[in-house]
Amino acid sequence: xxxxxxxxxxxxxxxxxxxxxxxxxxxxxxxxxxxxxxxxxxxxxxxxxxxxxxxxxxxxxxxxxxxxxxxxxxxxxxxxxxxxxxxxxxxxxxxxxxxxxxxxxxxxxxxxxxxxxxxxxxxxxxxx
Length: 128
Prior knowledge:
Blueprint: E1 3-7, E2 10-13, E3 18-25, E4 32-39, E5 46-51, E6 58-60, E7 68-73, E8 78-83, E9 92-102, H1 107-113, E10 117-118, E11 122-127
Parallel strand pairs: 2-11
Antiparallel strand pairs: 1-3, 3-8, 4-5, 4-9, 5-6, 7-8, 9-10, 9-11
C-alpha cells in the first residue's frame, strides 16, 4: 500500500519562506517522477513543480520560477519544496504526488498529467 505524507506547511508573512517535505512508502521511490501540486479555494489544481525520478530534470510553473526549488532524496524516500519570497497568492493546499508511470522522466508532462498516488496535503497560508 502506497502512503504519501506531507509536512511543513503553515502560516507565514509575505516575503517569508517555508520548506515542505513529503515522505513516500510502499513503492520504489527512485523509479518515479514526483510533484508538488496546489489548489486554492475556487480554483483548479495546479502543478507547481515536478522532478524526474533521477532528480536531474525539473519543471516549475511560471508563477513560482525563481522562488521555489524542488529536490528529492532517493535514499530517504523524501521530496522537498523550498519556497522563498512567498506571496499571498501562493496560499493553497499543497499536495505531493508520486507518478503511476515508471521512469517517465518528463516532469513537465507529469505536472500536466496530475495523476498518481496522493497525500492528504498541507496548508500554506501567506499573509500580506
